[in-house]
UniProtKB/TrEMBL annotation:
Keyword check for Metal-binding: yes
SUPFAM superfamilies hit by this protein: Composite domain of metallo-dependent hydrolases (SSF51338), Metallo-dependent hydrolases (SSF51556)
InterPro entries xrefs: Amidohydro-rel (IPR006680), Metal-dep_hydrolase_composite (IPR011059), Metal_Hydrolase (IPR032466), MQNX/HUTI_composite_N (IPR054418), MTA/SAH_deaminase (IPR050287)
Keywords: Hydrolase, Metal-binding, Zinc
GO terms, molecular function: deaminase activity; hydrolase activity, acting on carbon-nitrogen (but not peptide) bonds, in cyclic amidines; metal ion binding
Keyword Ligase among UniProt keywords: no
Protein's recorded name: Ethylammeline chlorohydrolase
CDD domains: ATZ_TRZ_like
NCBIfam families from the UniProt entry: PRK07228.1 (NF005557)
Domain Aminodeoxyfutalosine deaminase/Imidazolonepropionase-like composite: 18-42
Pfam families the UniProt entry points to: Amidohydro_1, HUTI_composite_bact
Every Amidohydrolase-related domain range: 50-404
Length: 437
């Protein structure tokens, strides 16, 4: 296939009248349209305003998709324990599968081709299969919770880690290696030391498995960890093995100098979730400082109950604007930096090689974006347009691993109407569920 338009190969590399050639699961050429059209006359040709790398959702909760709007305007720990965890506990296996499908379809239709996904305790297998079947690229795992959790979600650490290992053996590297596993403790508050250390040991036993957890999102959270352990949260996580180049920490809003040094020294990845942090009034993560220290920062939408959208374009815009407000400096977090976070940095955090840029030999995760729109007229700077003006709705075409997964309203491999209908049915059932699970 030959995809043509203004090609944004990465934040710094734009071909104004360009093209991308895809063969199998790979990009085989990136260059000038005229040259590629002449060299590949028999390839199916698709034309878009902009051709860009698929975006990477560095921290999402697909399985919370049925909870959009259930807990707006609520404090984080109340939001979590009184609304979101009871919803997760109330989902049966089919509900979990439908919620995940819905989340992945929303990602694909708005240009996200890879996610780092924090699933739930129960029925994670159904969500993993949903990721495989919808065609998204995903780093994901079953959530671990073995203290301070609703009864329906709290598990014995040994049993939960054994179930995680079974999922690793079955799914890590499945679906043409689009699916890779992350051992996923919810956060230090809801996990014992045994559970957290066990997560590290489990990841170490399986090549390429990563660790993904929430960290230092909220002041109440870090106070609780300090009461439990006598340590700052990130030092506690480091103590039990949850830092390093195979670890992705969502949020990191409340960190002191020593914790920031720790993130940089250990090569730990951070996923910034500005919309979630603003909506839950968690605070402003010190992202410019992280970037200056060389910490790899990805972007994430977090879950539909705290955002309430999985549109990664809005997240890019919010990240840049919030960074400027934080420093009272309009030069902070420019469009190119934020676009890099939402593409290659996210893929690095997710642990996928040759993903996140349009390059010969790299994976064919590509989006086509419409520019025949009032808000896209004129475009003086295409990266600026993508970060500050474009919407997920502008995405016309999404390809993952060389396969077309979304094409102008259609999902070629999924009956999206049926998914939405079943999602409405399951959401209605949640509305009728008891508030305590
Ligand atoms: Zn989260």
């Amino acid at each position: 296939m030959l995809l043509t338009g203004t090609v944004v190969a990465d934040a710094e590399t734009v071909v104004d009248d360009g093209g991308v050639v895809v063969e199998g699961d790979r990009i085989t050429a990136v260059g000038e349209r005229a040259d590629l059209a002449e060299a590949y006359p028999d390839h199916e040709h698709r034309e878009f305003g902009i051709v860009a790398p698929g975006l990477v959702g560095g921290h999402v909760h697909s399985v919370q998709s049925l909870g959009r709007g259930i807990a707006d305007d609520t404090e984080l720990l109340d939001w979590l324990f009184e609304s979101v965890l009871p919803m997760e506990a109330a989902l049966d296996a089919d509900g979990m599968a439908v919620a995940a499908q819905l989340g992945y379809l929303e990602c694909l239709e708005s240009g996200t081709t890879t996610v780092i996904d924090h699933l739930s305790v129960n029925h994670a297998e159904r969500a993993i299969a949903a990721a495989g079947e919808t065609g998204i690229r995903a780093r994901l795992g079953k959530v671990l919770m073995d203290q301070r959790s609703p009864a329906a979600l709290e598990e014995d650490a040994t049993a939960a880690l054994a179930e995680s290992e079974r999922l690793i053996e079955r799914y890590h590297g499945a679906y043409d290696d689009r699916i890779r596993y992350a051992v996923t403790p919810r956060f230090a508050v809801s996990c014992t030391e045994e559970c957290l250390r066990g997560a590290r040991h489990l990841a170490d036993r399986h090549d390429g498995v990563r660790i993904h957890t929430h960290a230092s999102e909220n002041r109440g959270e870090i106070e609780t960890v300090e009461e439990d352990t006598g340590m700052r949260n990130l030092h506690w996580l480091d103590e039990v093995g949850l830092t390093g180049e195979d670890v992705v920490l969502a949020h990191c809003v409340w960190t002191d100098e020593s914790e920031r040094e720790l993130l940089a020294e250990t090569g730990t990845h951070v996923t910034h979730c500005p919309s979630s942090n603003m909506k839950l009034a968690s605070g402003i993560a010190p992202i410019r400082d992280y970037v200056d220290r060389g910490i790899n920062v990805a972007l994430g939408n977090d879950g539909p109950p705290c955002n309430n959208t999985l549109d990664a374009f809005t997240e890019m815009r919010q990240a840049s604007l919030l960074g400027k407000v934080d420093d009272l400096d309009p030069t902070a977090l420019p469009a190119t930096t934020v676009f890099e976070m939402a593409t290659r940095n996210g893929a690095r955090a997710a642990g996928f090689e040759k993903v996140g840029k349009l390059r010969e030999g790299w994976k064919a995760d590509v989006v086509g974006i419409d520019t025949d729109l009032t808000r896209a007229t004129p475009i003086h700077d295409v990266c600026s347009h993508l970060v500050y003006a474009a919407h997920g709705d502008d995405v016309a075409f999404t390809m993952v691993d060389g396969r077309v997964r979304y094409d102008r309203g259609d999902f070629p491999h999924v009956d999206a109407d049926a998914v939405r209908e079943r999602a409405r049915e399951h959401a209605a059932a949640i509305d009728g569920a008891p508030s305590q699970a």
